[in-house]
Amino acid sequence: MASEGKTVEFEAGGKAAGGYLVGASEGEVKPALIVIQEWWGLNDHIKDIAGRFADLGYTALAPDLYDGVSTKDPGEAGKLMQNLDQNKALAILNGAVDYLRGLKGVDSNKIGVTGFCMGGTYSLLLACHNKHIKASAPFYGDIPPDDVLKNLSAPVLFFGADQDQWINMGKMNKLKEGLSKFGKEGEVKVYSGVGHAFFNDTRPDAYNKDAATDAWERVKKFFAAYL
Predict the structure, then answer these.
(1) Distance CA 43, CA 111 (A)
(2) pLDDT for the residue 1
(3) Where are the domains of the chain?
(4) C-alpha torsion sign, points 171, 40, 212, 149
(5) 6-226: what fold?
(6) Distance between CA 222 and CA 227 in Å, rounded?
(7) What are the catalytic residues?
(8) 3-class DSSP state for residue 86?
């Protein structure tokens, strides 16, 4: 069982936002990670992943992009994601970065981001919008347009699946091309024979143990190297 945390509030674009904080310490100064939710919302699965990172020695913050709402219904999740204004989401994520940078036990020069599905999309976007992000590990998120990707300011380790109907090989190849074109440091790791959401061990229909285990080992090494 991963470490447990607490609900916190922080300022985001002049408004109040919330999130789940785990691994915070006022003594030892540690690197920090932002863990971004899937389209379901800030649920127990995302909190558990934040706890796993805390167990590795990070202060982890999972911001709540849906203001307390979460669902298990794909139709409702789709509506929640569609209704999430990108500028609002980025304001919350930037606020989360500022909050972490202000904590006594966080090394403000060592903040990374990871996320899954919709959170993977925002993991890549945040690294294109906030220069305080020093490493980004998106899991099967969408790819920003070139005019955004060119502003990427952190190394990227992107995880995808060749059977993903949403984040398909065409999109992942576009990311590879963009990273090369703009001279950005990054790797796109594609798992064969698995589909979208392969890391989510609460979904037997999607979870792939081999791919998830390998991705976890890779993401641990990635953040250890850059944070």
Answers:
(1) 22
(2) 62
(3) 6-226
(4) positive
(5) Rossmann fold (3.40.50)
(6) 8
(7) 117, 164, 196
(8) helix
Alpha-carbon distance 12 to 96, whole Å?
7
Q: Provide the β-strand partners of residue 137.
A: 114
CB atoms within 10 A of CB 227: 18
Contacts of 221 (CB under 8 A, 6+ apart): none
Q: What angle do CA 113, 117, 121 make, to 5 degrees?
A: 55
Alpha-carbon distance of 121 to 142, in angstroms, equals 5
In angstroms, the CA 202 to CA 137 distance is 20
Q: Encode pLDDT of 175-212 as tens digits.
A: 999 999 999 999 999 999 999 999 999 999 999 999 99
Report the distance separating Cα 87 and Cα 142, nearest Å. 16
Q: How far is residue 159's CA from residue 74's CA, in Å, rounded to a whole number?
A: 22
**Strand intervals (E) in 14-155:** 15-22, 30-36, 59-63, 106-116, 133-139
Matching residue, tokens 């609460």: 202
Q: Is the pTM of this model over 0.90?
A: yes
What does the block give as tokens for 219? 């993401």
Q: CB within 8 A of 115, min separation 6: which ones?
A: 34, 35, 36, 37, 121, 122, 123, 138, 139, 141
Q: What distance lies between CA 224 and its chain's CA centroid?
A: 16
Rg from Cα positions in the chain: 16
